[in-house]
Amino acid sequence: MKRFGCICLIVFLIAGMLLAWWQRDLLEAFLFRFAGITAGENSRPMDWLEDHFSAGEDNEHPITNVKILARQITAGAASDYEKLYAIYDWVTHNIAYDVEKAANVDAYGSGAKYALEKRKGICHDYADLTRALLRAAGIKATYEKGEVHPAPGKTERHAWNNALIGDTWYALDTTWGAGFVDEEKGIFIQRPSRLYLTTPEELARLHSDPAYKEEREREWQRVLAAAAEPVYLQEYEARLLELFNEERAAAGLKPLAAETRLLPAVRQDAVAASERACREEEHSLDSLKAEIEKMARQLRLAKAGMHMFAFWDYPLPAAEELCRRIISEGETYLFEEGFDALAVALVSRGNLIVVSMVCLAYY
To answer: Is the peptide bond before 315 cis (omega within 30 degrees of 0)?
Structure first.
C-alpha cells in the first residue's frame, strides 16, 4: 500500500509538472509550493516581476509583466543608453499622475505593480516602476528620495531615479517628466518632456531652484516648437470669427465678414511670427502690411488694423478661451466702428499658439 502511495505521488508530481510546463505562468508557483523553496528578498514565489497578468497591448488589458514590458520597450535599442531613453519615454508617455491618490495616499495601492495596473501613480510609483524597468533591461538603477522645490515657496517630498551606464550616472525624474498638474482645475496634464533625463547635478538644480526650472522649461518648449511643423487650425479660425461677432453684437456693432482673399498672407505672417517666438525675437508686422498694401486696390481697402498674439499653452485651449485672452489684451480693432471684415489665422507649433488678425474697412 505504501509502495502504491509513492507511485501515485510520483505520478501526481510528474502530471503536475507537465501541466505547469504547459501553463508556464504556473510553473514557478508550482515549484515553490511542492519543492519547498523558501523565498528570500530577491526570490519570491509570486514575484510580480515574473507573474504575467496579461499580455494584451490594448488599454483594457495592458501588459503588467515588467520583464516582458521592458523587452518590448527596449526592442531595437542598440545600446544601454538607448534603452534608458526608451524606458524614460515610455513611462512619461504612459503613466499619468494620480491627483486623487496624492490627496489621500493611504487609500490606494503603491509601487511599480500598482502603476502598471492602474497606468497612474504618484512620485513613489513612478520611481519604483522606472527602477524595475531599468533593472529588467539590465541597467543598474537606484531609487532616490528627498525634498524638492517645484515652485517658489513650495517644498514637498519627492522620488526619482539614478541609472548607471558604463562609468556614468544619469538622473531620471519620470514624474516631472510626464507632465504637470493644473492647480486651478485639479487635473493632470500629460506633457512628456526629456528635460528631466539628465545628469544628477542638473536634476539637483532643477529640483532646488524653481526659477531655474521655469527658465529651462521655457527653453525646452522653444526647442520643441522650433522643431515642430506649423499647423493651421482652420476650425479655430472660423470659430474665433463667430465668437468675435458675438462680442461685437453685444456691443451693438455690425458683424464682420470673413476676408478669405487675404488669409494666405495672414497665415504666412503667423508662421513667421512663430519662428521668431521660438528664438525669443520680436515680430514686426511690416511684411504683412506690405502684402496688404499690394492687395489694397483689388480688395478696395479703405483702412486695415493688424494685431498678432502669441501664447504658450498646453493642451490647446478651446476657441472660447482664446477669444477671452485676445479680448483681454485690449489692443485689438474688434470693437471699433467702421470695419467690415476680418482675416484671422491661427497656427499651432508645439506648445506655441500664434493668432494673427487683420480688421478691414472697404470703400
So the answer is: yes
With b for 16 or more beta-carbon neighbours within 10 A and e for fewer, the 1-17 pattern comes to eeeeeeeeeeeeeeeee
Q: What is the mean pLDDT of residues 77-92?
A: 98
Please report which confidence band the pLDDT of residue 59 belongs to, taking 50, 70 and 90 as the band edges. very low
CA 48-52-56 angle, 5° bins: 130
Inter-residue contact 217 to 189 (CB < 8 Å): no
Find the helix or strand (DSSP H, E) in which 362 lies.
strand 352-362
Look at residue 330 in the predicted model and tell me its pLDDT.
81
Tens-digit pLDDT profile for residues 130-169: 999 999 999 999 999 999 999 999 999 999 999 999 999 9
Q: How far apart (Å, rounded) are the C-alpha atoms in residues 159 and 147?
A: 9
Task: Report how far residue 235's alpha carbon sits from residue 353's, in angstroms, rounded to the nearest whole number.
Answer: 14
Q: Is 22 a residue whose pLDDT tops 60?
A: no
What distances in angstroms separate CA 281 from CA 146, 148, 219, 274, 277, one per listed residue? 39, 33, 13, 10, 6
Q: What are the distances in angstroms from CA 61 to CA 51, 65, 122, 288?
A: 15, 12, 22, 53
Q: Where are the alpha helices (DSSP H) in the chain?
A: 2-22, 27-35, 66-73, 80-94, 99-103, 112-118, 123-136, 174-178, 200-208, 210-227, 234-250, 263-278, 286-299, 319-329
3-class SS of residue 251? coil
CB-CB neighbours of 112 under 10 Å: 22
37: pLDDT strictly greater than 50: no
Task: Tell me how many degrees the CA angle 118-121-126 measures, rounded to the nearest 5.
Answer: 115
pTM, full prediction:
0.76
Give all domains of the chain, ordered by start, each with its CATH number.
66-227 (3.10.620.30), 231-362 (3.40.33.10)
SS3 88: helix
Report the alpha-carbon distance of residue 124 to residue 175 in Å, rounded: 9
How many helices (DSSP H) and strands (DSSP E) are in the chain? 14, 13
